[in-house]
Amino acid sequence: MTRGTAYFTFVAMYPCPMTNPTGLPGAPATGTQFTLRRGDATAVVTSLAAGLRHYDRGGVELVEGYPLDAIAPGAAGITLAPFANRVDGGLWELEGKPQQLDITEVPRNNAIHGLLRNTGYHALESSEEHVLLEAVIHPQHGYPFLARHQVRYELGADGELRVAQTLINDSARPAPFVLGAHPYFTIGGVAPEDLAITLNAGQYLTANERMIPTGTVPVTGKFDLRSGRPVPESLMDTAFTALVTDDGVARHTLSAPDGRSVGLWHDGSVSFVHVYITDDFPGRSLAVAMEPMTGPANAFNSGEGLRWLAPGESFTMNWGIDSEGI
Known about the structure:
Blueprint (H helix, E strand, L loop, with lengths): L32 E6 L2 E6 L5 E6 L2 E2 L17 E2 L5 E3 L2 E4 L2 E4 L9 E3 L9 E5 L3 E8 L9 E9 L5 E9 L5 E3 L2 E2 L2 E2 L10 E3 L2 E7 L5 E6 L10 E2 L5 E8 L6 E6 L5 E6 L5 E7 L8 E7 L5 H4 L4 E3 L4 E11 L2
Antiparallel strand pairs: 1-2, 2-3, 3-4, 5-15, 6-9, 7-8, 10-11, 11-12, 12-13, 13-27, 14-26, 16-25, 17-20, 17-22, 18-19, 18-21, 21-24, 22-23, 23-27, 24-25
């Protein structure tokens, strides 16, 4: 698998948020739809939350999608900044002063999935094979910093989807952050019950009833996914770390009985992968999310995986989706 610099040509996208390519009443619920094509690969990126709404190779679906008139179910495909997963009670301290984020996971009294889930990004660049989106995080209660989150999607010559998420600190003081993304994986035409998940991770994070981490332990039993486990045996909402890389790149897969697979890859900027296997995804008996993250839930309090950007600095998380046999 070669990951180099690609050069691109002009754009294939819906030109404005009010474009209505399907004849449905009103505009797409997730804003402008940027359609990327290269070879047999097609991806659709949304301006809302810089999300991935569709990705296929040769007509085989590789991520769980959703209709134009819906928002992302279960946060499917959205990007996460300036925190991923949860902050306990939405509360953390900055220089000894409490910072209260909005509670966006009401049943568990947590802040969840960052501050841009309901924000429309705008395009800085676009071509038939890539798009670069940006949104501003304005200073606010719970996060008194000015920052920009840029998300670049591109299709490589081999049809692989590459994603680079960059946070830029425009504040006059250091800003804390965790970056993440929330893709759900599938292999079109294969029942979820017939898929197996493989995760190259040596440790997982235990959590309390509110999904706040309580410790890190070696993988055992159903949490040991290194040799692959059937998806139906692996319902979980769990973060993994001690990720194993090969030449600086880690790969985790969802595989079909015929040997075909779809994979999440990432470089060393990703230290955690959160696995969410659920029987509550609309229209699916089971759905599998493998979420790359620079830090785990509640990093703003635990400090685990938390990074700080000096004024004017930036940080980039690199990840993507590839496939074998498809």
